[in-house]
Amino acid sequence: MNNLVIAALLLVLIGLAFQTGWSKSGSLVTAKGVRVHSRQQYHGSLVAIWAIIPALVALALWGWFGGDVTHNYIVGQIPTDTVLALDQVGLNATIARIRALASGYGVAGDVLPYEQAAGDALRSFNFLTFVGTIVVAGALGLGGLFLARNRIDVRLRARNEVERVINLLLLACSAVAILTTAGIVGSLVTEAFKFFTFVSPLDFFFGTVWSPLNGSTIPGEYGSYGLLPLLVGTLMITAIAMLVAVPVGLMAAIYLSQYAHRNFRAVAKPIIEVLAGIPTIVFGFFALTTVGPFLRDAGGTVGLGINATSALTAGVVMGIMIIPFVSSLSDDILNQVPRTLRDGAYGLGATKSETIRNVLLPAALPGIVGAFLLAVSRAVGETMIVVLAAGNSPVLKGNPFEPVATITVSIVNQLTGDTDFAGPQSLVAFALGLTLFVLTLCLNIFALFIVRKFREQYE
Amino acid sequence: MAIDTLPIAKQTPAERTQVVHDGLRARHLSENIFKGLGLAAIILALGFVALLFTDIIRKGLPAFTQENMHLSVNFDPAIVKVDPVPIRNGFASEAEYQAASLKWQRSVALLNWNKVVEASLRAAAPAGYEIDTKDLLTIAETDARHEIRERFVANPTLLGQTVDIDVLASASAVNWIKGNIDRSLQDSQQQLSPEARSLIDTFVENGVISRGFAWSILTNVDSRAAPASAGLAGAFFGSLYMMIIVILLAVPIGVASAIYLEEFAPKSKVTDFIEVNINNLAAVPSIVFGLLGAAVFINYMHLPISAPLVGGLVLTLMTLPTIIIATRGALLGVSPALRQAALGMGASKTQMVFHHVLPVTFPSILTATIIGVAHALGETAPLLLIGMKAFVASVPATPMDQATALPVQIYLWQGNEDRNFFEPRTAAAIMVLLAFMIVLNGIAVYLRSRLEKRA
Questions:
Q1: Which of B19, B35, B61 is the last residue of a domain?
Q2: Do residue B316 and residue B422 come from a single domain?
């Protein structure tokens, strides 16, 4: 309610300020032969900016500190000996009761006299601070408004000033991307360092046993955190996925870009790209309920013991998911190879497939390798398929028919959403996240570097 | 005769033609094989798409119908023993009235409503049918008693009357009727007792149980105790709040930063850095954004756990690079003639960008936004890390309340122990999610073609 009032008042202030600037500016124009630097709406906008910023600053300050001030006020209203007698929980309950009394909602049970007094005092305090904040913010806003209004003059470069503010806003928005990266790096590194105070980096990066004791609170007994089983699982699934995605994706791209009729391409390409838009949880469900049992039965008929949830299941389905990624990137790259190279090969009598194999692919190779690396980085960071279909068995082994665990799965298992960041059990998620981040970052930078080099070659 | 082993210079032109001619067959064969492989790859990829969709639909479609029971419920005063309901005027403050009314509701809740359910079920069964109370109650979903109680709380004058109330058949009953569970299994492996199974069959024959569209899956919230009534409403609102937050934050910020980087930023080390940064952010695994959310938004800023607000912020950061890159591409594609014309007429750079360049790119920005939002809608992993996999059995009233999201609900349901019942239900939830995404993408395609025609 109060927020709505404030928002409405702010809108009124903006409107009023804009109108003031607008009409002042209009009165300049009416004088004959005067050339005003900026148009009316810029004067209006400038006054609005000058009015709204001080008001917003005042409101933000109250928003920041208001809660603490009110809290201290309530505590001040409760008799000192009562405060001392109460523990933290009791004090909070009393404060909640006083707030309920002040809001007029009332409380169940008997109301102590000091509670009633504090409630009444709080009600008038709340009203006073509310009105006070509005008055202060309004006064500052109006002050800004009049200052800006007085500045309006035929020579005032209002447009330039407004544009500078817009420019600053745009700059602030593009800083969000930087802040995000900084946030990711900062949080991963600090939390990972906290983890490394429990477990030495050597044990983490080169340990071969992953068995965290979740829920253990005994100091020193929190299990072992060896990265290698997870890393091997991740790489195994990634390799299987690439074995599926690269041949299919690359051949599909070659066929679509070199052989297919235009109409066929127009239909087939979007359908294949549908795969890229499907949420990974759906692929996970598909892997768990259909592909896994199918592979297990198929393995059974040829005498192979394949688990329904295994590296193979997760890898195959992840490969299917990555097909459109590989095919559209390869398609782009094949299209960038200059026509003259192909025409030259045809002129020498090569068939289409010979041209593709001997001319087109070698020329496009660096770009295609870059595309594959991007696909690998995608596969390494993929989570939901693996959580559902890989079986979560963090043991170091090389059999793709058995369940494995990956870095991403262990992050999900260790960080379950409760924010007790005290023990290594949850902190390890950040060490794993840091590993994953660095791994994918290197792959991406390397891949983008290769792709860019490739583009420059033909530009 | 091995002509092709001779050095080329020693071959006559006729011999050379012969060599080429002899090789043609093999070359054409390999050409056809290569082309065939390409076609096979396409067919394989298209086959995967078809397989995925048919598989999900085949599994999910049955879950959209569900068995209901039509019961005549008698609110027998001998079972429903309660005080008269408190009225507002009799109390000094709102709080005391609320307390009294809560107390009354508690007393109503403490009644054994299962007795009412049992009486109704026995009334519906053939006269003299012998079955344990426990077995009998397995037929109706456990929330039947809540359903009946709610009817009474809403209208306490029903006491002593008989009303027709539809309740859901239990998940086990649904499994039995639909054949989700093998009907030929022995008693020890069945979820229901033989008496209950045979009574269910009787109910299906005499129309007490009938199959209808499963509205519960769309209108109800999640439920553990009563799986047959578990629905997506809570998750839907969780997702809706997050999408609203993503649209409100990611679009303005993304478009603004794209404009700055493409149009205003001086070419310097700093802008290069921002550019590299954004390209890399686009490729950071989504789960890392979840870690960021857990560490910064929840652990450092103490925002509420499991809240759509936090989920929305995380997804916003994840969607931003997509929107920035797409918008930059669109801005780059605007013809220089338009810019020069605007500048030539005396527009400032800001005016040129906002009055002339930006409106032209509107269709592309819109499409990119919708595709980015659709992608965010299906994202699961980062939400798990900020606690959105908690079991929430209510529709979140505000973005600050606990909630799940559609993809997380799918994750939770696929892990449910009652596989027979929840596998179809999960597939149905996937169909709902995919339907939303298809609609979103359809809107994007439609708007794009429409707006581009106009431009």
A1: B61
A2: yes
Looking at B197, B219, B241, which one is the last position of a domain?
Answer: B219
pLDDT score for B455? 54
Of B96, B281, B294, which has the smallest distance from its Cβ to A419's Cβ? B294
Of A177, A275, A382, the CB nearest to B281: A177
Query: Quick check: is B228 in a domain?
Result: no
- If asked whether residues B417 and B282 sit together in one domain, one would say yes
The total of structural domains in chain B comes to 3
Reference A237, options A370, A366, A393, A365; nearest CA is A393
For B434, the closest of A184, A282, A384 (CB atoms) is: A282
**Same domain flag for B355 and B386:** yes
Which one of B20, B52, B386, B412 would you mutate to disrupt binding with A, by most A Cβ within 10 Å of its Cβ?
B52
* Inside any domain, residue B226: no
> Hey, are the CB atoms on B257 and A177 less than 8 Å from each other?
yes
Asked, for residue B170, whether it belongs to a domain, the answer is yes
B320 with B430, same domain: the answer is yes
Q: What is the 3-state secondary structure (H, E, C) of A290-309?
A: HHHHHHHHHHHHCCCCCCCC
The CATH fold assigned to A210-457 is MetI-like fold (1.10.3720)
**Are the beta carbons of A448 and B20 separated by less than 8 Å?**
no
**How do residues A92-127 score in pLDDT, each as one tens digit?**
888 888 888 887 777 767 777 888 888 888 888 888
Residue ranges of chain A assigned to CATH 1.10.3720.10: 210-457
pLDDT grade for B1, boundaries at 50, 70 and 90: very low
Separation between Cα atoms, residue B247 and residue B313, nearest integer Å: 11
Contacts of A159 in chain B (CB under 8 A): 348
| Alpha carbon distance A241, A313 (integer Å) | 10
Residues 6+ apart with CB under 8 A from B317: A176, A180, B289, B292
Residue of A nearest to B48 (CA): A320
Establish if B132 touches chain A: CB-CB under 8 angstroms.
no
Helix spans in A361-406 (H): 361-381, 384-389
Q: Is residue A410 over pLDDT 80?
A: yes
pLDDT band with cut points at 50, 70 and 90 for residue B9: low
**Which of B281, B288, B349 is the best residue to mutate to test the A interface, defined by the most A CB atoms within 10 Å of its own CB?**
B288
Note whether B27 and B154 are same-domain residues. no
Range of the domain at B406: 233-454
* Residue A417 confidence (pLDDT) above 60: no
Is B331 within 8 Å of chain A by CB? no
Furthest C-alpha separation in chain B? 120
Residues 191-220 of A with CB under 8 A from B: 191
- CA of residue A193 relative to chain centroid, distance: 22
Distance, CA of B96 to CA of A106 (rounded, Å): 8
Looking at the complex, does the CB of residue A248 fall below 8 Å from at least one CB of chain B? yes
